């Protein structure tokens, strides 16, 4: 299980909203802190690593969890700049 300093709930939102919400939230973090983005949009599996490559932040992991409502994805992004 990965550790996060801050959690961002984007459940119910679909692309591009989780990425837009991540962009806003990561600005509030200090360098080196990890943001956990919780999403039920499967697109986050491709979108978040691509966004990290584009912006220079580090994707440190992705977890999937099965719930009664469906699959929940947890993307962990480290602020690097």
List the helices and strands and how they pair.
Blueprint lengths: L5 E4 L7 H10 L7 E6 L4 H12 L2 E10 L2 E9 L3
Parallel strand pairs: 1-2
Antiparallel strand pairs: 2-4, 3-4
Overview of the structural elements:
With 81 residues, this protein is α+β, with helices and mostly antiparallel strands. 27% of the residues lie in helices and 36% in strands. It contains 2 helices and 4 strands. The chain has a 4-stranded mixed β-sheet with strand order 1-2-4-3, covered by helices on one side. It starts with 5 loop residues before the first strand and ends with a strand.
**pLDDT < 50 stretches:** none
| Largest sheet entry | 4 strands, mixed
Mean pLDDT: 96
Radius of gyration: 12 Å
Q: What is the CA-CA span between the terminal residues?
A: 24 Å
In DSSP terms, counting alpha (H) and pi (I) runs of 4 or more, how many helices?
2
What percent strand? 35-45%
Q: Reading side by side through the largest sheet, how are the strands ordered?
A: 1-2-4-3
Report the order of strands and helices: EHEHEE
Helix content: 25-40%
Please state the structural category: alpha+beta
The beta-strand count equals 4
Q: Judging from the principal axes of the Cα atoms, what is the shape?
A: globular
């Amino acid at each position: 299980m990965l550790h996060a300093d801050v959690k961002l709930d984007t459940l119910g939102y679909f692309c591009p909203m989780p990425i837009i919400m991540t962009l806003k939230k990561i600005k509030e973090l200090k360098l080196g802190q990890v943001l956990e983005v919780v999403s039920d949009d499967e697109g986050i599996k491709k979108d978040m690593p691509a966004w990290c490559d584009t912006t220079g932040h580090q994707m440190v992991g992705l977890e999937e969890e099965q719930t009664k409502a469906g699959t929940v994805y947890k993307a962990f992004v480290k602020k690097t700049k």
